[in-house]
Amino acid sequence: MPPSSLHPKVYIRLLYDIVVFLCRLPFWLLHHSLAALQRRHREIEREYTAKREVPRFPPRLVTLSASEDETSYHNSASDSEDEPLALIPPSPTHSTAHSPSIPPPPYHSLSSPPQHGPVSPPSPLVADEKPTPPPITPEPTTPTMSSKHFDPNPPHLLLTSLHSQTLTNPSLALDSQNKILYLRPSSKSSSQRVHLVSGGGAGHEPSFSGFVGTGLLSAAVSGTIFASPSAEQIRTCLFSRLPPSSETLVTVMNYTGDVLNFGLAVEKAKAAGKRVEMVIVGDDAAVGRTKGGKVGRRGVAGTVLVVKIAGALAKRGYKLDEVAKVARLVAGNLVSVGASLGRVHVPGRAVNKEEEGEKLGEDEVEIGMGIHNEAGVGREKMELKRLVGKMLRMMLDRNDKERGFVNVNSNEVVLLVNNLGGVSVLELGGIVAEVVKQLGEDWNIKPVRVLSGTYMTSLNGLGFSVSLLNVVNTDIGGPGMIELLDDECEATGWPAQISKLTWEERNQATREEDASNGEEVGESGLRVDAKAAQEVLTRGLEAVVAAEPDVTRYDTIVGDGDCGIGLKRGAEAILRHLSSKPLTGDVVIDLANIIPVVEMEMDGTSGALYAIFLNALVAALRTTSQSEKEASAKVWAAALRQSCEALSKYTPARPGDRTLVDALYPFVNTLEETGDVKKAAEAAVAGAEGTKGMKASLGRTVYIGGSGFEEVPDPGAWGLASFFQGLAGIKKLEEDSNGWEKL
């Protein structure tokens, strides 16, 4: 039959077949390329197995998926420029059940130009390959604190962590087989046109499982620790864990494994007729252009700003091309740099001597360390101020031809200071303050938003990263980046937000009224010799300062080690007060003037106890002044007794509980009985000595445990007894006179 007589449906069918062929062609090419890489990988592995002598890692049982190829940079000082790392994907034919691993091959170059690419995990065996038993197995070192984990089983740890998200956010569901966390079907999610999907290896939490929620991600796909999820996991997410008719934006950090696997799933979705776009984020500014090579910039913590802004825009109902455009604008205006004080330990992995040798020195910091435990661009000895200065120069110096990735010239800049997992909240606050200070002083940048917290971690990494977003116009005729950043969201990993109104109000008002009660202490008429009293009090305070090493040593054994420092700080503050404002001789006025110093300088439990006692002592002396005009030993004893009774209302501490009361009560009792300060001080010392071997009923010693309490006296009691010794003019015990100094 001539072509002209063919039915029109035949032409349509031919055209359809041609389109399907063209759509499938890229997948066939990618499949054959990966197969070639896998064959080359097995060849290298066999070559290395045949001639290796000592493996880098001891054999162990592992469970690896065929997708464990998430890549990262490794740019340590030992890496030579002519030996770049290579992407070596594991064999897809490998069974993932209880397979022994073999040591990874040494770093080989699969291409001539230097590239800082992935650190490949130990490669699984193909079914017909067996490792040659190593002649020598390195002995594991004694585990350090950083290598201890509550759950050292990575597969179990990952699934339980993902499951916990469904417990803390009822709107989430978990596909445990594919490790997909997604929004449950609801009226809110189904009405949204565009949905965001992201993911990557585990170990970066709350990224990205903690960002699944309304206004952020609609789903997150997780790989194993530091390993990309497989393309099949991601394809399952795109095809069946999102609303059927939705459009999807996939955001992924620039690591080879992530880009390949997410990219393959995206192409499959497009071939199936789904509307999907992918945005690759590379915001790291530590690795320069030369070292980055064709791989480009790594994706680090700045990625979360892309997710937040794009997620807010999607929630507002914007189209896919608009959401993707804004996401790319944000990604293109981001710079980040990280720093760390040490490497992290992956749960389930043995610690060997070589890994121990890679640890940073006690005073070293690694600049540019990545989020997969890979080395940074260098190690230096520097304090926080210099470190922050260097990190900011990496991001902002336009004269740095290796970097200078973004011209941060906007009137609006967003600052993100991210905790890599192991920095205390206290220390992170100090880091934020230093970064903001240097941005203003050295770069004339005053961030319009400052975000601080744990957004993207490297397990328990003892480090932080700084990200800057140069805010630009979105050009979509809608909300700007700042407005979208301020939009509310509902995800466990995103901290509670400060409202837009609070930021823009720029309230500078303060409250600086005098905190005093407005009542000046009047003369009481109860007097002592001012000069003699100042000498005696100074002597007692100096005795406390001299006793600080002993008190600190005792408290280190049975407490937290801060008692001696606290007492010394209070004593020195009172001494400074006395030098500027000598005693007047009126005991009520003088004591009332000392109390604020104690309250300001002495914190903790002992500071509160002393403050209560002294305030009660002032009240007792004021009452006594109505009938007495001379502050005799009898008057002091009666006032001290009333102060002890007042103190007993706020603490159950009594003699025998191993507290400072064991020195206080004997002093007061003896002073009442004899009127002799020296005998009272000796009784206080005896009371303090008696606490040796006394089991504590109160204080931190109760929780410490151990037998330390049998060796040393109570630190608080010893410090107070030292004060009483100074008042009485008793010399400090000699080192060989009573055994305390030798402990």
Keywords:
42% helix; disordered C terminus; 743 residues; alpha/beta; six-stranded mixed sheet; 10% strand
Task: Give an overview in words.
This protein starts with 7 loop residues before the first helix and ends in a 15-residue tail after the last helix. The longest helix has 44 residues, at 8-51. The chain is of the alpha/beta class and 743 residues long. Mean pLDDT is 80; it is low at 48-145 and 733-743. The chain has helices at residues 8-51, 154-168, 187-190, 231-240, 256-271, 289-292, 303-315, 320-332, 353-357, 384-396, 425-443, 481-486, 500-505, 530-558, 563-580, 587-601, 604-624, 633-647, 661-674, 677-689, 701-704, 715-728, and strands at residues 61-62, 99-100, 172-175, 180-183, 194-202, 219-225, 247-253, 276-281, 334-340, 365-367, 378-380, 413-419, 449-453, 463-470. The strands form three sheets. Strands 3-4-6-5-7-8 form a six-stranded mixed β-sheet, sandwiched between helices. 42% of the residues lie in helices and 10% in strands.
